[in-house]
Amino acid sequence: MTNETTVPTSRPHTLEGWVKLLDAVRLPVPQASHDRVCKAIADSRSSMRDIAELMQDSPALALSVIREANQHTHGSMTETAENLEVALNRLGLKRTEQLLAHLPARPESEIPIALRQLQLISQHATQQANGLFGSRLARLWQDIHWGSLLFLSPLWPLALTYPQLLDEWELRVIRRGQSAHKVEKELFGVRLLVLCQALVDLWRLPIWVQQGYRLLLNEQRLLVQVLHIARGADNPLHQQQLLDADPALRRWLNQPANTVLLANGIALAAQQSWSCPHLLRWQFLTSLYLQTPMDELQQHIHQQAVRSAQHHAMADLWHPAISLIWPWGAEHLHPGQLPAPAPTAEDLALWRKLCGQLLAEPSVFTNAMHLTTFARDALVACGMHRVMILMTDRNQSVLRAHQTAGLPKGMATLSLQVNQSTVLQRLLSQPAQVRLSPANNAQFSAHLPASLRAPFDGNHLLLRSLSNNGRVVMVVMADQGGGPFSEITVQAFGKTAQCIEKALHSFTAHG
What's 345-510's CATH class? Predict the structure, then answer.
């Protein structure tokens, strides 16, 4: 296993390649949790249960211990360690201490935000599972707890090594409703569920986690049948009659292992919105599983979200409990119509560094492509999801794409006749900025070439023309996925444009 968390230079495109890469990743552990656990192990008065409880604060630490215990005994007749206490007893204190010594411990602020955000969703799922099912299935609380926490764990190393791929998946599949199968084939070369199942099997994670992925991959027909019944929540008697008429389906629904999948479905969907169709489906299924009215169930789910936020929320992470206090009409806007998230401190640090290089005197750039590459990266660092930088020819009659980010590959060769668009003519006549919004989108889009506007789908877009020595030479287009902008990103966009203009001037003078 590697000891660093650097991003590989080229990503895999096969199941075998992804499994090999992600299996080798060592997840960073919060330094504070690491120190507490090490101290407890060194204290002879600490029981295995005490140590296990301390480890629960760090999902990465719990995963590492359970993985090690199950791989350490792989091939033997020993059953899978289904929870942390069993895993600790199987490893013993000395082996656990050795494992801790080899795990990268970092201050929480230095652990990448994409990994912490995904682990927060897992912790929210665990709270939902414990609150909704823990008392009803009290004998199985350990299976419910650890299965729920570790269900998304195959994605944790992916969030560490390729966070931008998960961001793009969320943008395209969740926000834009594109085909998950098509997007995953393009981004990963393999279905995410298949990749997760392969890692779950390799790591010998708890059996309920394995069953959850098998259900999603191989039992979708049964899931659809149950969902059809669950949608009739306003007539519970009819629901019961339908289940009684199909005992095999009723037994399948009532498997305790389904609690893990239901809790994670609720936690994942709540990240998008409390009223989105994805969450409604999981609520219907959970209502049927628990035989609880929908309004009562929703109240319980909201209560568990608040409890999760009280224990696990962080200032720089999104927790859906935050939006429970919003007016319900506003809640419908998250995330597609609410402002995009502001760039993280980590992103802004990179942005400042790139802007510093754009402002360097004398110019550090060897050619125009070198300069525009830095300009593009600065725009992405300040929060833009899609970027295009176009350059004019000497006569200002043609605009050609010079740099792109987050757009289809074909856009890199785009060439436009300026006289075909009044908006482009206006932008090239003098430096200007146009900000498209729902109020003016139709007006401006009608005067932009379709080949330029189509890839930037949505109602929100920034266009800015930049000059050098009194003459417009460049047009920059950028958005945050087509939804409303973060105002911090808009301000950073303006400052970046100023830095690019300064860089153009220095580059020309230097040349």
Answer: alpha beta
